[in-house]
Specification:
The structure is a homodimer of 446-residue chains. Chain A is mainly α and 446 residues long. Chain A folds into three domains: 4-133, Alpha Horseshoe (MgtE N-terminal fold); 145-245, CBS-domain, CATH 3.10.580.10; 274-445, SLC41 divalent cation transporters, integral membrane domain (Tetracycline Repressor, domain 2), CATH 1.10.357. Chain A is built from 22 helices and six strands. Chain A has a three-stranded mixed β-sheet with strand order 1-2-3. In chain A, strand 4 (210-211), helix 15 and strand 5 form a beta-alpha-beta unit. In chain A, helix 5 crosses helix 7 (82-89). The radius of gyration of chain A is 29 Å and the shape is elongated. The model of chain A is unreliable at 1-5 (pLDDT under 50). At the A-B interface, helix 1, helix 3, helix 12, helix 13 and helix 15 of A face helix 1, helix 3, helix 12, helix 13 and helix 15 of B.
């Protein structure tokens, strides 16, 4: 754990590194854990980050690389020579090595692998088979397994022989001679059971293990819902392949949440990405918005005549559009959250739609009165005030339809609804907002 | 863990509950775990939810209540009589009871407490002291502690006497006769050490325990960064009060992420909240947006003359405003994420500001060329095209200033930047967008 003393080290490095000699920084780094160093690197602009990383001892580089987010990890790895990288990862667990190597260009990976022992290479290559976002991609191979007919006494003396158990070992697994998964045995039941009892009497066998091809978000939900620390992973032949531990699941939960938040704004970059990369990550979204903004403008263009005659309309029309955009984003957010938590399905979507409609009508009444009142106070035009109120209600109803349908449709086409959603829904509400307000004005004001 | 059979039960309940007899539903519920039932309740509209909950056995109600999110938990608790509630929580751990009781109105809580034994009441009252969002609010009191001079053999036989260890027990704690915290002893070191060794030789004492008043987000970051399963909590006198376990921390991480996502859209409700509550949770935000939209409109109002003369301006002005809004939201999101992950501080905020400025200029060049080109293609007006390009660049730069300063200022005043942020930044970009475009037009087009 980060002691308060080490937290100070972190502050000193981040705040004053310009005033410290390289040797002073190196001494501070030596006192910090790999995860603290990783956090310091993630909180540093690129130049400072490269400098800090270069001050690490080679044996520490691997641990720090593993703790880093993908983008920064790849950046720093790309600055190491093949020899340095091989040296850095040498002492890591095999699944940690897989985590670092899997993002390398194929050529480079082959070169690094060729420097390893045949056994290591085989195991790493096995780990590289599973896609990143599956249970297989999350698993560690550091499982301890015992046989069903062992006594607890034998199990304890076997564990004692191991010297140290792998981190986050809250249970070990029971397999038959063919390494087929039979059940699990919690460390706490081992320690509290009579040593003469037999594994198969105590093991839990009614719990289904994870499959290598399960989606990582599904794994996260299972861990969360069942308060798991670790869970076994089997392949399609029921053979025990490894286990997934809560620390990796927490990373999935954090990344998942990050993705929703960043996705909705159309950014995909680490906090201190260099300007060129940050600009590239955002320009797509801005360009999409430019195109949709022109679509909204071409709606306005249909009403040149009425705008030419009544300048007030130009002043008020952004209000209707903007209110629809906010309401649609609210509905979209509720649907996105419900989809992420797997709460929304065919049985309740209809109820949700009706609820959103009711919300938009309830809030539509309040807000249209308010907008009508303010408009009247401003321009003293009764019809104009009624028109803007009606347009607002129409646009709030359109915001519900867009906010619910757009994410569901994107999801149906296997698109991440967090990423495409908000630009599409606000385009709908912009267009409907301008259409309804200026359309009603054309009918009733000229 | 949720077996695939139980997952089917969940689907059947959610999809077809209208076609099933109450007895059939009750049988399905009997096969599900408390967390699965809680998920089913969270995925159900209010009427169906109340029905499902009423079908549970009393002894199951407490576990299910504990697994539910705060809002739904309170809803269901408010429908139970004091006797039913006392009965439902009777079998829960004390900290689980605290979790459920702490949201009750004071009167009601007193009545429930009065039905409990004096010992239980004292301990629950102690748990109720700590605010919800602190380490104290997260802690469980189910700690196992041993003395530094015990042998491992004694520790093991003590643990064996416990029968079963509390969930998520990866370590036990070492305290002196005054219950002052000395260190921790991992279960895996107990199991792998020579039974004749003494606790104080093996315990880890260089790890600082959590304090009861530490912020829960800080606790989450410490758990995440150090891959913890559990951590001791001490009071200001260094006495061991309890421990925090990863399952509760995962809930904090999820809620925290939820809060950022929902906060930015100005919604704060569970997915299937009834319409009245959902409307109330959103109307504040919509009203704020209405006010700021009128502020933006009054900016446009300053330019009635030029709008009256050149109707194209009304058509194009939403584009400049909307682009600024998207760019500002991107910057805001990056800053929010950096603040949540504690990456941003005084030492790097200046770099971040310069980076954002560089991003806005880089993207500003690309987008202003694009917007100028499309405008020219549409209206064949050279000056108009140049003006809109310049206004866009001005607004993108203003979006950086707003996107960085607004969350930092809100944070300084102890406001959640996720919640106030996006309405404020888009107001800035709307106003600057209209001002710059219409202002430039006034100067150069008439």
């Amino acid at each position: 754990m980060e002691s308060s003393k080490n937290k100070d080290n972190l502050k000193i490095i981040l705040d004053d590194s310009s005033d410290l000699s390289l040797n002073q920084i190196r001494r501070l780094l030596n006192k910090m854990s790999a995860s603290e160093i990783a956090h310091a690197l993630e909180s540093s602009p690129p130049t400072q980050r490269t400098l800090l990383f270069s001050l690490l001892k080679t044996e520490e580089e691997g641990d720090v690389l593993f703790e880093l987010g993908e983008e920064i990890q790849q950046d720093l790895v790309s600055k190491l020579s093949n020899e340095e990288l091989t040296e850095a990862v040498k002492e890591l667990e095999l699944d940690e090595i897989v985590d670092i190597l899997q993002n390398l260009p194929e050529e480079r990976m082959k070169k690094i692998l060729s420097k390893m022992s045949l056994v290591d290479r085989k195991r790493i290559e096995m780990g590289l088979i599973y896609p990143d976002n599956t249970a297989g991609g999350l698993l560690n191979t550091d499982v301890i397994s015992v046989r069903p007919n062992n006594s607890i006494e034998v199990v304890i003396s076997y564990l004692r022989d191991q010297g140290e158990l792998p981190e986050n070992t809250d249970k070990i697994f029971v397999v038959n001679d063919d390494n087929e998964y039979l059940g699990e045995l919690s460390i706490s039941s081992i320690i509290t059971s009579n040593p003469l009892r037999i594994v198969k009497e105590i093991m839990e066998s009614d719990i289904s293990p994870l499959k290598t091809d399960q989606d990582d978000k599904e794994v996260a939900i299972l861990f969360e819902r069942n308060d798991l620390i670790s869970s076994p992973v089997i392949d399609e032949n029921n053979k025990l392949i490894g286990r997934i531990t809560i620390d990796d699941v927490v990373d999935v939960i954090r990344e998942d949440a990050d993705q929703n938040l960043l996705g909705m704004a159309g950014v995909a970059e680490d906090t201190f990405a260099p300007p060129g990369r940050a600009a590239r990550s955002r320009v797509f979204w801005l360009t999409m918005n430019l195109i949709t903004a022109f679509i909204a403008s071409s709606t306005i263009n249909l009403f040149q005549d009425v705008l030419d005659k009544i300048v007030y309309l130009a002043i008020l029309m952004p209000i209707v559009a903007s209110m629809g955009g906010v309401a649609a984003t609210q509905t979209l957010t509720i649907v996105l959250r419900g989809l992420t938590l797997e709460q929304i399905n065919t049985s309740n979507i209809r109820w949700l739609f009706k609820r959103e409609l009711a919300v938009s009508i309830l809030n539509g009444i309040v807000l249209s009165l308010l907008v009508g009142f303010i408009t009247y106070a401003w321009f003293q035009e009764t019809i104009l005030s009624i028109l803007i109120s009606c347009a607002l209600i129409i646009n709030l109803i359109s915001s519900v339809i867009a906010g619910i349908l757009v994410p569901l449709i994107l999801r149906r086409f296997n698109q991440d609804p967090a990423i495409g959603g908000s630009v599409v829904v606000t385009t709908v509400t912009d267009v409907v907002g301008f259409l309804s307000f200026l359309g009603l004005a054309t009918i009733y004001l000229i």
